[in-house]
């Protein structure tokens, strides 16, 4: 019995309705209040990009293969010199106490029990040090640049001291269109929900918008990390720096030239620019731009092991699971997240076997059938 099976056996039962990873999405409304669910499940604006992220996977079909020897099949993969048991990472998600009282501690326990890499958010409900104690050896820290340089550096220093093996810098969320779904549901962040990593920071006096300057443009300029700051972090960091929120080939090649260790192709789960293309749809052009050896990850829209297979064929080295993670957390805490990862991994293995692929490299050499045009 491996570690994931032990945690499944020792904790409360999984709802009988869960037979695939996506079932956690259908069950979540029974465990999360309507207003919180609207915030968690919604994107920006009218959810156009959110819907595209999921639907685009159905544009591609996987062709079954026969007479292929997959008896020694494995999901192991090596990225940035580290070997991972599978290419399924847990994406950084803020304020997980919205979904479960144990919040990121439960998610970290699930990551450790399933040999999964957890990417902990700057805006986590519990301090990054507590997450590190539970998350297992493969853990990364997601960084939002803070207004004060000393606050940003403090987060980086704490993450490195706590043993996080990479810094993931989010660059696409300086401003965000409001979620119409959350507004209509009356969602408001309660005072009990705090960002534990930065709650101790001194209040920052917002710079006044310059005369004649548009408020939105001014806000973006204040919150977006500059190229100079990003270059300095990449240069000085003792651990790899990965950039999250890349959607254009030119941005990808520029970041590669700057020394980034890798990129995450992501539109923030449809939570920033509504109407942006699906992450999967831009993945092939970005992979082509940076070459085959540069680490590229994908998030946004993953709902099954078959989706993971398709993402790898189209250029991803690994994927990050976002909303499914928090849905499973809401349903069954650490057990739910561990079970969700287990199901995704089994779905991926089943897809690999039927497609005649015995390892990740063979998936990358496969081709998909384009089912239809949008």
What does it look like?
- This protein has helices at residues 3-10, 23-27, 34-41, 48-55, 103-113, 128-134, 149-161, 180-184, 215-223, 227-236, 249-258, 279-290, 305-313, 323-354, 360-364; strands at 60-62, 77-79, 82-84, 88-90, 118-120, 139-143, 167-170, 241-246, 262-265, 296-299, 318-321, 368-370.
- The longest helix has 32 residues, at 323-354.
- It has 374 residues and is an alpha/beta fold.
- It has a single domain, classed as Alpha-Beta Barrel (TIM Barrel), CATH 3.20.20.70.
Features:
374 residues; alpha/beta; eight-stranded parallel beta sheet; two-stranded antiparallel ribbon; 15 helices; 12% strand; globular
The number of distinct β-strands equals 12
Content of β-strand: 5-15%
Going by helix content, strand content and strand pairing, the class is: alpha/beta
The dominant shape is globular
CATH superfamily: Aldolase class I
Could you say how many structural domains there are in total? 1
Taking pLDDT < 50 over at least 5 consecutive residues as the criterion, the unreliable ranges are 6-11, 215-221
Task: Produce the secondary structure layout.
Blueprint lengths: L2 H8 L12 H5 L6 H8 L6 H8 L4 E3 L14 E3 L2 E3 L3 E3 L12 H11 L4 E3 L7 H7 L4 E5 L5 H13 L5 E4 L9 H5 L30 H9 L3 H10 L4 E6 L2 H10 L3 E4 L13 H12 L5 E4 L5 H9 L4 E4 L1 H32 L5 H5 L3 E3 L4
Parallel strand pairs: 4-11, 5-6, 6-7, 7-8, 8-9, 9-10, 10-11
Antiparallel strand pairs: 1-12, 2-3
